[in-house]
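Sat 14:20. Reprocessing the chain from the morning session after the first attempt stalled halfway. Input below, unchanged.
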Amino acid sequence: MTSNYEAEQAVIGSIMLDPTKVMPLVLIDVRSEHFAIEEHRTVFDACKKLYNENKSIDAVSVLSVVGSEYKGIVVQAAESVPSLKNIKAYLELMQEAYKRQEVKNKASEVFILIEENAEIEEISKATSELQEVLVAENTVHESNAVDGYIDFIERGNQPREYIQTGLYKLNQFAYISYGDYIVVGGRPSAGKTAFTLQMMLKMAERETVVYFSLETSKEKIFDRLISNFCEIPFSDIKSGHLDPHCSIINERFRQFKELNLHVVEASGWTVEQIRSKAMQLKATVIMIDYLSLIQGQGKTAYEKVSKVSIDLHTMAQRTKITVVALSQLNRDGDKTPDMTSLRESGQIEQDADCILLLENLDAKKPNSDRELIIAKNKDGKTGKMTLTFKGELQKFYCREDRY
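Finished this time. Tokens:
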């Protein structure tokens, strides 16, 4: 058992010396299971019980709960504390020991699953849980009114940085931050994949972006990426007619290789597998093409997609990885799409921080303008803008004449 006996002893001793000041601080971050030493855990539970009952906490009252056999533990703990000023340091040392034990337990669980020839999905889930333990923060971030106001003033004079999309008008609407859950919806052939791949190229200049393709090969994804990046007609790439473009391909490689992006073929994957791979690659942004193809729990398509959406939202919040998920829209004829058009689950509408909807303004013309609808935007404004789409380059441009 990984533990820090001295730190646990110091926390108990600090409680005994000044419970009024120490208990509120301790109860924010500490649970019974954080104490690896059983005797310390028992004494802490007694202190917690007395505190919740608004009773005084001292050696006599604690021993009346745990029994006289704990007298040596209580007295020794009180005598071990050099200064109450160090209580936060004691708590950090104790929690670090607890986290090490959690990591050890999860690692053992993964090893046992491997030894028992468990299903890969089960091993992946356990590995993902291990990674979550490693990145989890114990610190509670809080500010009082004065601190929060002063911090606001100080931040107000500094430029705010957000994840850039590559489309300046969209940046004026959507302030994309780490941990956001973004949904990009569109009917078939609206250009969802091309749109998100273009975003990926821009984001990968500063972020680590992982594109999870659940239905398209990595080769086809890179064909589209390079068509956009090098401005090579997509038809020439599809036909293998690259000789006229060799010079630009060679020239742009020096820039392309600096992009921090990965494409993962993820057909049949679960959210747990996606999260595990994203954390392995140290992703700050992931894109999923597309949401309803992720394997999820549930008896119906509605239940499965709802659960997947909740899990993606939770993953984004916990890991602070920005999640961009593509979603199909219901076929509603000529009706302008809105949030209710998201196929198979209204849960997506509830979970997403931002919903972007692409509509082909002339379905009979593949290269016609697209209308980008910002249907939901927690941290910005909603609205519409027109984008010029050049299909031969898999590229979108902001229109200057109208929104």
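The mean pLDDT is 87.
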